[in-house]
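ok trying again, last paste got cut off:
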Amino acid sequence: MVGFQFNGSKDLSGPRNNRMDLRNVALRGASLGYLNDENGELELSWTRAYSAAQIQRSGGAPPDRFDVRVEQFHVNGLYMFGSAPFQPFMLIGAGATRYVPTNNLATTMKFSFALGSGFKWLWTDHIGLRLDARWTPALALQGSHFFCDPQGACYTTEQNSYLSRVGPFLNSVEFTAGLLLRY
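nice, full thing came through this time. structure:
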């Protein structure tokens, strides 16, 4: 599958950091599914995106910038409405999101989930097209650490705004398309 990932931002604590922003980027991935009945499917999915983080600093200081590889590993359940050749579906899943930064910073892994919908369009019994949209936020509670350096200094999340207090997530929305092979 290929697609595009729209990433959010998260408030940071400390006197020198205000906010962490992740750049919106293209993604790629794969999924492997098992049809457990005509309308249900269980799938394993993986996506990878090469993004960049920008840490907004206090007092007019220049922002910290570094590249980040974002990988998601999810187990998803799909419920399909109708039968082939055109099958709309709903998706719900859970798994983990891994953030792998450059600049000698530590990898961070967070629990994440997926909610989405899309459709499968089968051209033959075995080949088709899948399009979907997913909200895939990672859980980033107050005090969560991101991208620690070798001395143990980390970017720590805080809930400075109303949206951070009611939604403790580092948000991500994905739109993907892929070739569907069914056997």
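cool. The first strand starts at residue 2 and ends at 7. The chain has a mean pLDDT of 90.
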